[in-house]
Amino acid sequence: MNKLSSFELFWLMFMLYDSPYALMLLHYLAQAQGLLAAEMMILAAFLGQAVLYMAVKRAEQNLQVNAKPNLFLKMYFYLSAVIITAIFAEMLAAEFLNLTPKWAIALLFLVPSVYLAFKNMRNIAYLSVLLLPLSLIGYVMLFLGNAESFSLMNILPFAQDNARFFFSLAHILPFVMQGAVLMVLYRELAAPECALKVSSWALWSNIFLLLGEYILSCGVFGAEESARLLFLPIELARILRIGDALLRVEVFSVWHWTIAGVLSTALFLDLAAGSVEKEAARRKIIFLALALWLVVAIFDDVTAVNFLFEIGIVVSVGAMAGLIKQKRSGRREK
Predict the structure, then answer these.
(1) Which of 61, 114, 194, 329 sits a CA distance of 20 to 30 A from 152?
(2) DSSP codes of every residue in 289-301
(3) Would you give the DSSP letter of residue 6?
(4) 5 beta partners
């Protein structure tokens, strides 16, 4: 069994927890509020990634990965610099040259994915390549403008009245692929019992990231409006109908999808590990997920239904992975 390097493990987590939605929303914040606000949000995002990196390094001994700290740090900061440079280059091009290379940021995700795919095609790497186009469905929908100008909706007449369906599809597909990636990632881990610890550290890193975004939002939009935005996810289809004025609201509704992904991931890893001694931790995670779902349901019932559906998908994939693992272990014992 091939072990994962620190870079491979970190990049998979980067793909899982910070999809192209995050950078795309930062781009819209830059257009709405200017370079300074965009720079603060970008730094907050990469600060959260730095915490996640520390979580990976902390669990490194238990995961038994091949560590190359110096090379890893160079690649990490190089990637950060490239992404930040691409964002500002796109904004400057749009400002002075009237050009909008909308795929510039998205293509950056292809480079490390292709690298992993060629390095270890029989393993987990090719799944990250599959994750890329699925995650970019929402990216494409936003950049193509409102629902009426979406090419697929022009081809399919019934789609004009089902914008919510395509919006949900754009979020559900990445979650399905997330479950597939995690299933293979779980298989490759040398110590599956450490999965819950890693996911909990990832959860804390995203909490820090969200707190940073919330603090920054108080300075950008005002404390009262920020508090309202924090608990009021706005549907993408609704935003597209209203216009660009509310696109900035979507920046702060990304907390919903981030926490949904982290909680469902932690729940999946815990269920797949199937360890009896983790029963108390499992109950805490389920309680947190249900509590968060209840809060969302109070403010937006439609989003709550989607949220519950997404968690159900990932947990179902995790349950299937656990059953397959039990059957295989039973065959080996026989």
Answers:
(1) 114
(2) HHHHHHHHHHH-H
(3) H
(4) 66
- Tokens for 196, please give them: 């819950």
Length of the chain: 334
Q: Which two tokens stand for residue 302?
A: 């439609």
Euclidean distance between CA atoms 302 and 141, whole angstroms: 20
Residue 313 to residue 268: CA distance in whole angstroms: 10
pTM over 0.90, yes/no: no
Percent share of the chain, pLDDT over 70: 0
Contacts of 139 (CB under 8 A, 6+ apart): 20, 21, 24, 106
User: CA end-to-end span of the chain, whole Å?
Assistant: 22
Average pLDDT, the chain: 44
Would you call 161 helix, strand, or coil by DSSP?
helix
Instruction: List for the chain the helix, strand, coil content (%; round to 5).
Output: 85, 0, 15
Greatest extent of the chain over all pairs of C-alpha atoms, in Å: 70
226 close to 131: Cβ distance less than 8 angstroms: no
- Indicate if the pLDDT at residue 331 is higher than 50: yes
- Which residue matches tokens 């937006």? 300
Q: What is the dihedral of CA 181, 184, 189, 194, to 10 degrees?
A: 60
Q: What does the domain layout of the chain look like in residue ranges?
A: 6-333
In this prediction, residues 52-65 reach a mean pLDDT of 46
Q: Which residues contact 243 (CB under 8 A, 6 or more apart)?
A: 146
Contact 23, 105 (CB under 8 A): yes
Whole-number Å distance between alpha carbons of 175 and 237 = 19
Write the pLDDT tens digit of every residue in 144-154: 433 333 333 33
- Token pair in block for residue 193: 């019992």
Whether residue 67 contacts residue 4, with contact meaning beta carbons closer than 8 Å, is answered with no
Other beta carbons within 10 Å of 287:
10
CB-based burial, 232-267: b 16+ in 10 Å, e otherwise:
ebbbbbebbeeeeeebbbbbbbbbbbbbbbbbbbbb
